[in-house]
Amino acid sequence: MHHQLPFMVPVLPMAYFSLQQKKENRDEDISINVDASRGTQQMWKTLDLMNREQYMDFATEYLTNAGSELPERFSNMDDPIYPGATQTFAETDTDWQDELFRSAPISKINVDLAGGTEKFRFFTSYGFIDQEGIMVGTDYKRHSATLNTEFKINDFLTIGESITGSYGIRNNEKESGGRTMIKHIVNQIPYIPARVPKGTEGYEHGYRTTAPVDDTDPENPLRIAEQDKNIYKRANIIGNAYAEISLTDWLTFKSVFGMEYTGDQTIIDNPQYKDDYNEREFHELEDNRFKFYSRIYTNQLTFDKSFNKHDINAVAVAEEQITEGSRLIGRGDHTTNLLNQLDGSQNQSVAGNLDETTLISYTGRINYSYADKYLLSASFRRDGSSKFAPGNKWGNFPGASIGWVLSEESFMQNVDFISNLKLRASYGKVGNNNVGSYAWQSTISQNTWAVFNNNAEGNPGAYYGSLPNEELEWEITTMQNIGFDLSLMDYSVTFSAEYFKREVDNLLITKKPSCITWIHR
Fold first, then answer.
1. How far apart are CA 236 and CA 166, in angstroms?
2. How far is CA 168 from the centre of its chain?
């Protein structure tokens, strides 16, 4: 009985200012930058929904033509909207969009401080955003900070670090009964009031909703927005520290340790309520927590030297990366809205999981050039992943390429219209380990029911969620190509052509079990 949802976009008029200050002298350079803005957001276009009169005319015609009875309410529009009220349903015309949408302020500020000396450099910043949602019950706040420093201890040793952190809280848009807030807004009836006085008979919490006599069942979206809570909190830290040693002017060693930590929490808090036709018997609580930690340790040796017409660059890398992720979900019900912790609740349930992976890599690469005409590159990578079965954890991935710049040859120097002509070819293999952390093992899924001996109530059970595959190994992609690049008339015209071939072996796919074995417990 309503029109389709049009495209809606928030608009944002902003007030903005920036402040910069810089101090310089022979030994130091310090700068301060402040950016701040404030504005509002609002819907630039809303839904074209029916008012009370249009709704009743349309519903009457629609149901009459269909041979259906009219809702009981249509014959009782002069009834009060709640016991003792002077206002009737016939005098009520609620615009649910006006009730749920609003003009919402947004503020941002960012402060940067940078400077240092020849031997010490630093950069630090702080940012804050405060954004109220255009829908009642939604908003977002975030703090963020960054710190980068670099110390040049002496001519051969440099150390540094970089740390970035953020913390945010978001009140999410809610859902109820499997419907979004927009769906409830579209389905709600114009002659139903959004609020009634708290404590009125049958309206304990002051909200009104539709009833069976209206032949509809949407909930009051204002009650959902103001009472129910879906709060998402997230903290994130990314950092690394490094030390670089210049052993000679052509040989350097760099060691880097990096880490990332993310912790988030989603709190769902749906209190008890009761109006004349709808109610929630229990105060429902859910605490969903996730933690992710990753650390990576890299050692790299770099050789870079030029002599006569020879240019050589070689790199050797050893790296280890470990990730850990865990989730814990707790649920429970209270018989009062005064308690908002799971402790002491009833109908409790707990679920969780842990995910760990390790990747170890050894890489070597050399690039060689002679007179900028003859080019050669070769590499070899050996990776070991915990995701694969014993005996298949390691994979070897070589690669090589060659190039010949004909335009640098002496016999091409008199061909003025050719700016660049290069022939090239390459061959290489790369590996893919994009599978689950325990994909080669058989896993058991729980929280299901099995029927034994015609027991209609069923029995709690478990089943094999995946089949074991001890032959699971690296997916390997082999690539070959040969081609040339041509540039004419001082690079004003360019042309490239190549033949490319790509083959994939040991394609990683997920296959569900063809049958289910029940494990009674």
1. 5
2. 14
CA-wise closest residue to 134 among 87, 171, 109, 167 = 171
* CA 68 to chain CA mean position, Å: 48
Instruction: Output the 3-class SS for 401-419.
Output: EEEEEHHHCHHHCCCCCEE
Identify the CA nearest to 429 among candidates 467, 388, 399, 387: 399
Tokens 């670099």 sit at which residue? 150
Given a contact cutoff of 8 angstroms between Cβ atoms, the answer to whether 295 and 357 are in contact is no
3-state secondary structure of 436: coil
Neighbours of 447 (CB within 10 A): 9
414-460 pLDDT, tens digit per residue, is 888 888 999 999 999 999 999 989 888 887 777 677 777 776 666 77
- Strand-pair partners of 396: 382
Distance CA 96, CA 224 (A): 13
From 402, 407, 422, 405, select the one nearest 481 (Cα to Cα).
402
Total residues belonging to the chain: 521
- Dist. CA 315–CA 368, nearest whole Å: 12
Q: 403 and 350 in contact (C-beta within 8 Å)?
A: no
Residue 26: predicted pLDDT:
43
3-state secondary structure of 90: helix
Q: How far apart are CA 153 and CA 47, in angstroms?
A: 64
